[in-house]
Amino acid sequence: MIFSTKIVDIELARSHxxxxxxxxxxxxxINRKPTITELGVFSAMWNEHCSYKSTKKWLRTLPTKGSKVxxxxxxxxxxxxxxxxxxxxFKIESHNHPSYIDxxxxxxxxxxxxxxxxxxxxxRPIVTMNALSFGCKDKKKVTHLLSEVIxxxxxxxxxxxxxxxxxxxRFDESYEGNCLVNVFAAGLVKSNKIFYSGAxxxxxxxxxxGAKTGRDGIGGATMASSEFISEKxxxxxxxxxxxxxxxxxxxxxxxxxxxxxxxISIQDMGAAGLTCSAVEMAGKGKLxxxxxxxxxxxxxxxxxxxxxMLSESQERMLMxxxxxxxxxxxxxxxxxxLDFAIVGKxxxxxxxxxxxxxxxxxxxxLQALSTMSPEYDRKWRINQNHIKTPSIQxxxxxxxxxxTTLLSSPNYSSRKIIWExxxxxVMASTVIPPGSNAGVVRIPETNKAIACSLDCTPRYCxxxxxxxxxxxxxxxxxxxxxxxxxxxxxxxxxxFGNPEKTDVMGQIVGCIQGISEAxxxxxxxxxxxxxxxxxxxxxxxxxxxxxxxxxxxxxSIDDLILIKARTTDYLYLIGDNPGHLGQSAxxxxxxxxxxxxxxxAPEIEFSKELAAAKLISKLNAANKIVGGHDxxxxxxxxxxxxICILNNLGIKIDASxxxxxxxxxxxxxxxxxxxxxxxxxxxxxxARGLQIPCQKLGTFGxxxxxxxxxxxxxxxxxxxxxxGLDHFFSASV
Length: 733
Hints:
28 strands, 35% helix
């Protein structure tokens, strides 16, 4: 872009993602044409990615308060009280569009961005996880995207030095042109050492910290707020380039400066870079700000103000300092070999003024950028699909053949080949590595631990958005319950297509309503989150994918529940008999039936969910169970197979062994519990006392799984399970 020759008009505004009405609103607001840099600033602050203009109305309906909530939505991350003066800072964010364009750098900088959100608030990151979605048709393209995304996540996280405890991985044709890369992170901070982003008073020095500004990432936020048109390779320059080693230095420098009590407010430079960080910092304090771009460290010559304001170069922070602390701050950042520059100040006047080469490039009302972005009440429609679950009688399905098909599918095969590329033991705090019900990390110098899980079932959400939203929250709840944790709060990453389409907007509204209902019922406030829209290519949207990150507290490592079983241990089914095949993995993976044809999603009953959670907590506290596993995708038989494979044990299923619905149904609120022979009666009595169905399924023994008259060795199952992703990595392993 040659800035000196650009004429700001409605055509240029459209190219910046602004609608005609939005551009006219800008003209009326400032009573003149904006400069090219001002147009860039408006496009950054008013795009979907930064303003949430299509979802603000509905996000406000989410429950965000609770007895443990210290900080809810609106800051870099949410914070909950975990007792003993400690707090947990956590959030999930997306880097979807950048990861499709440049999968390595896109995913790597997604990790870097979420880590900055955590330590910006004064917390030291202790765990990351990721929820990944890819297409399944173009194997060459999928292989490239998957392998490079995994490399990017591993490269940044491993180098930075924070454990990655896995998460979710799925494949569906709807993600063919729009892969999803959602990254979760959590960190620990003392509850009296939390830092926020809002400036508090006038005449505070505004300080630029970290890496130099370059031309990478310019327009990234705007790009993330638009649809793709087939292979949009031309937008590759919009992807940022990360440096994890510099970010590690930035972490240590920021925490050291915070410890020196020199910081008033701090904001990372993420989407829209310097523009967004400056506007949000001043806006939250109801102040104005003046910036002098001549003082901003740059790594490229002759950068225009437009480029400097919209660059999304990584590893950068904006901070306001306590007056008189400049010398201390400069010395700390010099020690860590990071740039430090005083680039502006806060002012009382409601103005955002930016100077470059002594010219006033931006002179705008700051609150208009911060709080007066457009808000749309878009039309929406939820399609009610009343199609019955298709009959499976004509297929003459064999249980074990169906099971091996699921276990060999990329959607349900072992993720070991991926997890091996992530360092999950760094910091020596990991209690449960990837591959269990939830990830668990110990809180240093205590016997307590944090459990976290990422969950969503997009096929449920697309068929019935309200029910799917409820299920995503509830599944996270179950994963923590069966790990021995007390679920405390959630964060969400709402991934959808174009909100201007009534059907897609209906998915958004329905999922948010479902999330809200479940959050209230299960006492899981929503404390942070992210919205990623326009995830579609050539008009084809992704499946509705509202990823839910759930966190909980394990009060003692002794309370931990593993997916564990031993020879002669008994296996019990807790909850109503399964049998619901609508939208099941069986229909999709084995019979190729999906979408509307696959029938209704399974219902959620919160009273049963809470009763089952109470039972498991009671049995665990009394040391009556050896291990456990929740039942989700693939139903009862897939959960049993996973227990057998993990523990190298076989089992004979005693009852209903050949009933496909019973084996593969995805009814909600079900668990598998493992107990010793001596504790059978106590388990059964406890279940009856809470009026929860309880059924003995069998006894663990040798290397053989028997279902009805059919059988297979565990070693055979393991081989099938562990090779399901090999073809994606065959070229690189």
